[in-house]
Amino acid sequence: MEFEFYYYLIFLATGVIAGFIDSIAGGGGIITIPVLLASGMPPHIALATNKLQGTFGSGMASFNFIRKGFIQWHEVTIGVWYTFIGAALGTYALLLLDASVLAKTIPLMLVAIFIYTLLSPKMGENDRHAYLGRHLFFLIFGLGIGFYDGFFGPGTGTFWTIALVALLGLNLKKATAQTKVMNFTSNVVSLAVFLYSGNVLLLVGLLMGIGQLIGAYVGSNMVIHKEVKFIRLFFLTMVALTLIKLIYGSYFS
């Protein structure tokens, strides 16, 4: 596919904005996918190209968090492996099954997360006691959320962040950082499948990826330097916007 020059400028700007938002609270896909679809791309091409550009953003955010000491490899290695397996299974299942049932059930889960976060003003301010051991946690959520991201995707970052805070006892900054590593892992797995199937528009994906690098760098630095209250507000906003988009797309479009 070829586009007018101004479309490429829009793709670049969209990548910057989405990378910034996604590195702080997730939800960048609610910006990128509508833009890709509005350009005239078929849905399967738009989703595949979105994975390419999103990989750049989650990769940059992960690198920045690691560089600043917010992530210790021994804390996430087991999660990366389980997420890798889950995402591979989910992407394979996507080729065989219909994801429409998830489109109608996931909004209900996001409503619960939004209410829980709204009613927990101190959520994620400090580290606290973990309710699950790290290995068991990643066995359940690495496979589960990894599968979900490969199979469907919207809200993945939200599910990771809330699980890491509520069940592993991480503060919101650490949870956001570890979420990006898991996002990057599942993005890479799904992207490999899409590249093999030839559904990715490389030029568009790479251009948006450059934008993602810029936005994710700025956004991840804000997570590092801002207070948890700012991150929580941003998180709530993106959960609400993701919820509105999913409900509208599932029940009213």
UniProtKB/TrEMBL annotation:
UniProt keyword Calcium present: no
InterPro entries: TM_pro_TauE-like, TSUP
Protein localization: Cell membrane
Topology of the protein relative to the lipid bilayer: Multi-pass membrane protein
Alphabetized UniProt keyword annotations: Cell membrane, Membrane, Transmembrane, Transmembrane helix, Transport
Keyword ATP-binding: no
Main location group: membrane
Transmembrane segments: 6-37, 76-95, 101-119, 131-148, 154-172, 193-218, 230-248
Record-level GO cellular component terms: plasma membrane
Family statement: Belongs to the 4-toluene sulfonate uptake permease (TSUP) (TC 2.A.102) family.
PANTHER family linked: MEMBRANE TRANSPORTER PROTEIN-RELATED, TRANSMEMBRANE PROTEIN YFCA
Protein name: Probable membrane transporter protein
Annotated source species: Sulfurospirillum cavolei
